[in-house]
């Protein structure tokens, strides 16, 4: 498959570039332009926190790319690599369409960034990102499940951990998600008869001295005061050192016991973009491709870039800056880029990207928000009304706007929905992280998983005082069980350790196979 123009990425920049280019080229655009996106929808990321807090339905914040980007060939698939020498994209379209190749004349890089949670031990295993609709739905289901479990148990310490949520990151996503979860859990507690006076605890952890540093000190401090007044616990100038299944450990040695950890940090350059920059010898700005003011990559007239993966020069009232990686900039960059490509195809010169900055706003829950618009600052209910009005206007499509308006109206009158729409996942292989001295399993407990020790070490303790130290590469399996399928030892992390758990159907099949062959796995091999 060959196209004159291939747009890589279906976020704000890529989608609006495709939408505008389709309008400019008309029906011939579907033969000349392709939009390659990992999913067939554009996600309106600013409203994901409301999906997590059960204020909006998931379909309210997505827009089908095929309906949004008319006269453009929309191709769903994950881009694995870009071979610049051959002008080819390698695309994985799914189980039966892997290694598909798409050739291009001109390429638009709009792949955005990716989530990298590996910098903090345990974050990848237990941190819940808020990057997609699926992430928001999983977080919503997890919070409801914690309420259900807390309503079931009698142990006060366990109930407190179940009703504690830690949100890492005090930017827009972190503040809005924390506010939504606090509202959701507080409003929903009245439907759980056994929770009594057990407090709902939402902790917002931020590595800087102020929240929402992008919006200014005045509004950041206002957001902090309002959140604290509503009962949210803030940990500023605090960094997370390690995360386990039941706790968050901070770099200063403190910890919070919790079973729900939300992470809004960990953005990293897209590896496909990094690889292409390596092929072309391009210098990057914090992993973002440098462009000129027309959004073209200097020295490569057939390569363009916009959105979070691009470092675009921006004239901010006479001062040249790099445009921030936000939705309002990505959308306008996409539109300008499309017009520039259309001009290039006609043989005309592209025009520079110009945009008058409108401002920023963030909802902090309970009909409260902070906003900075055209240099004027607002807070309270008026800012919240402005936030909803602006984002409603920005939503693509009349149908989406109507749905969101109805859902927001219902949320003002009726309680939020507590239905669990996603069952707990059955991960047959699951990565887990243990902090030093954390219990893996107790003697006499039923075996629910076998474990492979990828790093660190685990200490086995027997009732008679015997101990054994299992190093990296060990397997904790059938050899440590008694005839009833219970553990004969207690296992504790000797140091921070990473393991892979084999459970669910895979565990049952493995146990059956071991019984049939009478060849148990050996720990420490």
Structural description of this entry:
- This protein has 525 residues and is α/β, with parallel strands linked by helices.
- It folds into three domains: 2-38 and 77-114 and 268-357, 3-Layer(bba) Sandwich (FAD/NAD(P)-binding domain), CATH 3.50.50.60; 123-265 and 360-413, FAD/NAD(P)-binding domain (3-Layer(bba) Sandwich); 429-517, Jelly Rolls (Sandwich).
- Helices cover 31% and strands 29% of the residues.
- It contains 14 helices and 35 strands.
- Strands 1, 2, 5, 6, 7, 8 and 21 form a seven-stranded mixed β-sheet that branches. The chain has a five-stranded parallel β-sheet with strand order 10-17-11-12-13. It has a four-stranded antiparallel β-sheet with strand order 28-35-30-33.
- Helix 1 packs parallel to helix 11 (327-346) and helix 6 (133-152) packs antiparallel against helix 7.
- The longest helix has 20 residues, at 133-152.
- The model is unreliable at 516-525 (pLDDT under 50).
